[in-house]
Amino acid sequence: MGEVDEVQERIKDDMEAMKEQMATMIEVMMSMKKIMEVNAAVVATTSAIAKVNLTPSSSLNQINNLISGMVGKELGSMGGPHFVQV
Known about the structure:
- This protein is mostly helical.
- The chain has one domain (2-73).
- The protein is built from 2 helices and no strands.
- It has helices at residues 2-51, 57-76.
- The longest helix is centred in the N-terminal third of the chain and has 50 residues, at 2-51.
- The protein is rod-shaped.
- The model has no long low-confidence stretch (mean pLDDT 77).
């Protein structure tokens, strides 16, 4: 009977160890779930920002051309190109 008791005790210990391992695995999986949720929120925010384009690129090009033209006129009225050393 002593041998059966030893086997049952080992089985009991193994089951306890498995319960602890499963609890650890569940903790890790919950942490991973939280990370995935945060990443999904970041992606959603980034996508939403990308969709909201307050200044279309054609408007930016027009503004750049306007500013370049104004600066060019100012430099031209001074007698030609001027180089600035930094």
